[in-house]
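Page 47, continued from p. 46.
Same chain as before, 232 aa.
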Amino acid sequence: MSAVVDLDLDPSWSIGGKPHGGYLLAELVRPALDPAHPHPLTVSATYVTSPDPGPAELHVERLRTGRRVASSQLRLTQGGQVRVAALLTAGTWTPDAPPHWSAPGGPPELPALEDCPPTPAEHADGRTVGPLSHVDLRLDPSTAGWAQGAPAGRGEVRGWVRWGDGRPADAVDLLVFADVLPPVTFDLGLEGWVPTVELTVHLRGLPAPGWLRAVQSARLLRDGWLDESCDL
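Result:
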Protein backbone atom coordinates (compact mmCIF):
# COMPACT_ATOMS: atom_id res chain seq x y z
CA MET A 1 0.00 0.00 0.00
CA SER A 2 1.25 3.47 -0.91
CA ALA A 3 -0.37 6.84 -0.35
CA VAL A 4 0.43 10.55 -0.68
CA VAL A 5 -0.94 12.93 1.96
CA ASP A 6 -0.91 16.72 1.61
CA LEU A 7 0.41 18.50 4.70
CA ASP A 8 0.56 22.16 5.70
CA LEU A 9 3.45 22.68 8.12
CA ASP A 10 2.42 25.18 10.80
CA PRO A 11 4.87 28.14 11.06
CA SER A 12 3.98 28.59 14.74
CA TRP A 13 5.99 25.41 15.47
CA SER A 14 9.19 26.93 14.10
CA ILE A 15 12.49 27.72 15.79
CA GLY A 16 14.58 30.15 13.76
CA GLY A 17 12.17 29.77 10.85
CA LYS A 18 12.43 25.96 10.69
CA PRO A 19 9.78 23.51 11.99
CA HIS A 20 10.48 21.67 15.24
CA GLY A 21 11.74 18.09 14.85
CA GLY A 22 9.25 16.47 17.24
CA TYR A 23 6.34 18.30 15.60
CA LEU A 24 7.49 17.05 12.20
CA LEU A 25 7.74 13.49 13.47
CA ALA A 26 4.16 13.60 14.76
CA GLU A 27 2.95 15.07 11.45
CA LEU A 28 4.56 12.16 9.60
CA VAL A 29 3.32 9.42 11.88
CA ARG A 30 -0.32 10.29 12.56
CA PRO A 31 -1.58 9.87 8.96
CA ALA A 32 0.33 6.57 8.62
CA LEU A 33 -1.53 4.80 11.46
CA ASP A 34 -4.64 2.67 10.95
CA PRO A 35 -7.42 1.33 13.21
CA ALA A 36 -5.76 -2.08 13.50
CA HIS A 37 -2.37 -0.55 14.39
CA PRO A 38 -3.26 2.77 16.06
CA HIS A 39 -0.14 3.39 18.16
CA PRO A 40 3.49 3.97 17.23
CA LEU A 41 5.88 1.45 18.81
CA THR A 42 9.13 2.74 17.34
CA VAL A 43 9.86 5.63 14.98
CA SER A 44 13.27 6.49 13.56
CA ALA A 45 13.69 9.62 11.43
CA THR A 46 16.58 11.18 9.55
CA TYR A 47 16.25 14.92 8.91
CA VAL A 48 17.83 15.19 5.47
CA THR A 49 17.30 18.95 5.06
CA SER A 50 15.20 21.35 7.10
CA PRO A 51 11.75 21.84 5.56
CA ASP A 52 10.06 25.21 5.36
CA PRO A 53 6.67 26.00 6.89
CA GLY A 54 3.85 25.61 4.41
CA PRO A 55 2.73 22.95 1.92
CA ALA A 56 4.49 19.58 1.89
CA GLU A 57 3.77 16.03 0.77
CA LEU A 58 3.91 12.92 2.94
CA HIS A 59 4.62 9.68 1.07
CA VAL A 60 3.56 6.60 3.02
CA GLU A 61 4.67 3.15 1.83
CA ARG A 62 3.37 0.18 3.81
CA LEU A 63 6.18 -2.36 3.92
CA ARG A 64 4.29 -5.03 5.84
CA THR A 65 0.96 -5.46 7.58
CA GLY A 66 0.85 -8.18 10.20
CA ARG A 67 -1.59 -9.19 12.89
CA ARG A 68 0.20 -7.29 15.65
CA VAL A 69 2.65 -5.03 13.82
CA ALA A 70 2.59 -2.83 10.72
CA SER A 71 5.80 -1.39 9.24
CA SER A 72 5.85 1.69 7.02
CA GLN A 73 8.37 3.92 5.30
CA LEU A 74 7.61 7.65 5.43
CA ARG A 75 9.06 10.49 3.36
CA LEU A 76 8.30 14.19 3.75
CA THR A 77 9.01 16.11 0.55
CA GLN A 78 8.89 19.71 -0.63
CA GLY A 79 9.46 20.70 -4.24
CA GLY A 80 10.35 17.10 -5.08
CA GLN A 81 13.16 17.04 -2.47
CA VAL A 82 13.15 14.65 0.47
CA ARG A 83 13.26 16.61 3.73
CA VAL A 84 12.62 13.88 6.32
CA ALA A 85 12.76 10.09 5.91
CA ALA A 86 11.44 7.78 8.64
CA LEU A 87 10.63 4.17 9.46
CA LEU A 88 7.54 3.49 11.57
CA THR A 89 6.61 0.34 13.46
CA ALA A 90 3.03 0.52 14.71
CA GLY A 91 0.81 -1.71 16.84
CA THR A 92 -1.55 -1.48 19.81
CA TRP A 93 -0.84 -0.56 23.41
CA THR A 94 -3.29 -1.77 26.05
CA PRO A 95 -4.34 1.03 28.43
CA ASP A 96 -3.20 0.52 32.03
CA ALA A 97 -1.38 -2.73 31.23
CA PRO A 98 1.06 -3.40 34.11
CA PRO A 99 4.72 -3.97 33.17
CA HIS A 100 5.94 -7.54 33.29
CA TRP A 101 9.29 -6.19 34.50
CA SER A 102 10.82 -2.75 34.98
CA ALA A 103 14.35 -1.69 35.90
CA PRO A 104 14.78 -0.26 39.42
CA GLY A 105 14.59 3.48 39.89
CA GLY A 106 11.14 4.53 38.72
CA PRO A 107 10.20 8.00 37.47
CA PRO A 108 12.70 10.83 37.96
CA GLU A 109 12.45 12.90 41.11
CA LEU A 110 11.28 16.45 40.39
CA PRO A 111 10.45 19.46 42.56
CA ALA A 112 6.77 20.23 43.09
CA LEU A 113 5.10 21.72 40.04
CA GLU A 114 4.58 25.07 41.79
CA ASP A 115 8.36 25.30 42.33
CA CYS A 116 9.08 24.95 38.60
CA PRO A 117 8.37 28.20 36.70
CA PRO A 118 6.89 28.17 33.17
CA THR A 119 9.32 28.38 30.28
CA PRO A 120 8.37 31.32 28.04
CA ALA A 121 8.15 31.09 24.26
CA GLU A 122 9.40 34.66 23.81
CA HIS A 123 13.01 35.47 24.73
CA ALA A 124 14.33 38.86 25.80
CA ASP A 125 16.50 39.04 22.65
CA GLY A 126 13.41 38.75 20.43
CA ARG A 127 13.74 35.05 19.59
CA THR A 128 10.60 32.91 19.63
CA VAL A 129 10.69 29.22 20.52
CA GLY A 130 7.58 28.12 18.63
CA PRO A 131 6.93 24.80 20.39
CA LEU A 132 6.63 26.58 23.74
CA SER A 133 3.62 28.50 22.44
CA HIS A 134 1.87 25.10 22.29
CA VAL A 135 3.51 23.17 25.14
CA ASP A 136 3.57 24.04 28.84
CA LEU A 137 7.10 23.24 30.05
CA ARG A 138 8.11 23.71 33.70
CA LEU A 139 11.85 23.16 34.18
CA ASP A 140 13.47 21.95 37.37
CA PRO A 141 15.34 25.10 38.53
CA SER A 142 18.39 23.02 39.47
CA THR A 143 18.81 22.15 35.77
CA ALA A 144 17.93 25.60 34.40
CA GLY A 145 20.73 27.68 35.92
CA TRP A 146 21.92 28.53 32.41
CA ALA A 147 18.94 30.88 32.08
CA GLN A 148 20.60 33.08 34.74
CA GLY A 149 24.10 32.59 33.36
CA ALA A 150 25.01 29.80 35.81
CA PRO A 151 24.96 26.43 33.98
CA ALA A 152 25.49 23.40 36.24
CA GLY A 153 27.71 21.56 33.75
CA ARG A 154 26.02 18.18 34.28
CA GLY A 155 24.58 17.83 30.77
CA GLU A 156 21.04 17.27 32.07
CA VAL A 157 17.66 19.04 31.89
CA ARG A 158 14.54 17.94 33.79
CA GLY A 159 10.98 19.18 33.95
CA TRP A 160 7.22 18.74 33.79
CA VAL A 161 5.47 18.89 30.41
CA ARG A 162 1.92 18.90 29.03
CA TRP A 163 -0.10 20.65 26.32
CA GLY A 164 -0.57 24.36 26.94
CA ASP A 165 -4.36 24.05 26.84
CA GLY A 166 -4.30 21.23 29.37
CA ARG A 167 -5.72 18.54 27.08
CA PRO A 168 -4.47 14.99 27.71
CA ALA A 169 -1.68 13.68 25.52
CA ASP A 170 -2.11 10.69 23.22
CA ALA A 171 0.58 8.30 22.01
CA VAL A 172 1.58 10.41 18.98
CA ASP A 173 1.89 13.51 21.17
CA LEU A 174 4.77 11.78 22.97
CA LEU A 175 6.79 12.16 19.76
CA VAL A 176 6.54 15.93 20.24
CA PHE A 177 7.29 15.88 23.96
CA ALA A 178 10.36 13.66 23.45
CA ASP A 179 12.01 16.56 21.60
CA VAL A 180 10.65 19.60 23.42
CA LEU A 181 13.14 20.14 26.27
CA PRO A 182 15.97 22.63 25.75
CA PRO A 183 19.21 21.06 24.49
CA VAL A 184 21.52 19.91 27.27
CA THR A 185 24.26 22.03 25.70
CA PHE A 186 22.67 24.95 27.56
CA ASP A 187 23.57 23.22 30.82
CA LEU A 188 27.13 22.90 29.49
CA GLY A 189 27.40 26.66 28.95
CA LEU A 190 27.00 26.53 25.16
CA GLU A 191 24.49 28.84 23.52
CA GLY A 192 22.52 28.32 20.32
CA TRP A 193 19.91 25.78 19.31
CA VAL A 194 20.93 22.27 18.33
CA PRO A 195 19.40 21.10 15.02
CA THR A 196 18.08 17.54 15.02
CA VAL A 197 19.90 15.26 12.57
CA GLU A 198 18.35 11.95 13.67
CA LEU A 199 15.56 11.20 16.14
CA THR A 200 14.43 7.78 17.33
CA VAL A 201 11.52 7.38 19.74
CA HIS A 202 10.58 4.09 21.43
CA LEU A 203 7.12 4.05 23.01
CA ARG A 204 6.39 1.47 25.69
CA GLY A 205 2.89 2.43 26.72
CA LEU A 206 0.18 5.08 26.57
CA PRO A 207 0.65 8.34 28.49
CA ALA A 208 -1.15 8.85 31.78
CA PRO A 209 -3.45 11.89 32.02
CA GLY A 210 -2.01 15.12 33.36
CA TRP A 211 1.57 16.31 33.65
CA LEU A 212 4.40 14.11 32.36
CA ARG A 213 7.87 13.97 33.87
CA ALA A 214 10.79 14.42 31.48
CA VAL A 215 14.53 14.05 31.94
CA GLN A 216 17.02 14.68 29.14
CA SER A 217 20.72 13.93 29.36
CA ALA A 218 23.80 13.46 27.21
CA ARG A 219 26.82 11.18 27.36
CA LEU A 220 29.17 12.71 24.82
CA LEU A 221 29.78 16.02 23.04
CA ARG A 222 32.62 15.82 20.53
CA ASP A 223 33.61 17.52 17.28
CA GLY A 224 30.38 19.52 17.33
CA TRP A 225 28.16 16.42 17.57
CA LEU A 226 25.96 15.51 20.54
CA ASP A 227 23.81 12.57 21.59
CA GLU A 228 20.81 13.19 23.82
CA SER A 229 18.43 10.77 25.52
CA CYS A 230 15.02 11.88 26.82
CA ASP A 231 12.87 9.72 29.11
CA LEU A 232 9.19 10.54 29.59
